[in-house]
From TrEMBL:
One of its GO terms (cellular component) is plasma membrane. SUPFAM superfamilies: alpha-catenin/vinculin-like. This is TLN2 protein. InterPro entries: Alpha-catenin/vinculin-like_sf (IPR036723), Talin_IBS2B (IPR054082). Its main location: cytoplasm. The gene is Tln2_0. It comes from Cinclus mexicanus.
Amino acid sequence: CYRENILKTAKALVEDTKLLVSGAASSQDKLAQAAQSSANTITQLAEVVKLGAASLGSDDPETQVVLINAIKDVAKALSDLISATKGAASKPADDPSMYHLKGAAKVMVTNVTSLLKTVKAVEDEATRGTRALEATIEYIKQELTVFQSSEVPEKTSSPEESIRMTKGITMATAKAVAAGNSCRQEDVIATANLSRKAVADMLTACKQASYHPDVSEEVRERALRFGTECTLGYLELLEHVLLV
């Protein structure tokens, strides 16, 4: 029942995505209508996903988290898409903002597809862990793309904060190795959820610290490079767990 509702609402959201992209080249009214429609649809989708997560029961909280994370990814992608659409409105087809818009739309569709795969996997206990790991790998890749962009963070933090956040990576690594050894679905799901947060927190802290006023250009470049290398190394670890 929930799966059918999620599927139907997700399809409606994909249609809203198409309207948003085409709306950038049309009138402000059409663009506003498309944005409002997509906002209504994502609210409905979040509700049916939450009901689906609740139906799993409280004895499987990690799988509930996987589902909630999937809808959060879709909501974030939609927010980015609406922002990209506003930036591309009334611009010529070869304007850089149009390429950014196409990229945002692609991420949006990827995340909706990922949500639907996750919903399907939830019904099959044998594939829950694998799917959770695949979704986390995709999420980390998207976070790394944001990290590597030229966008300056809204706030800065101290290098100490960045160092503190690397401890989460250490914990998540130990969890990933243990999951690879045990091959238990619940261990893999827990690893996927922990890895997602640990890497995202590290990337945020690293970028914020690298733009601290006291940090030189050379040190910033090194910090950003090491943040990227750390993430790529962790992705490789998760890929190995997935293979196992």
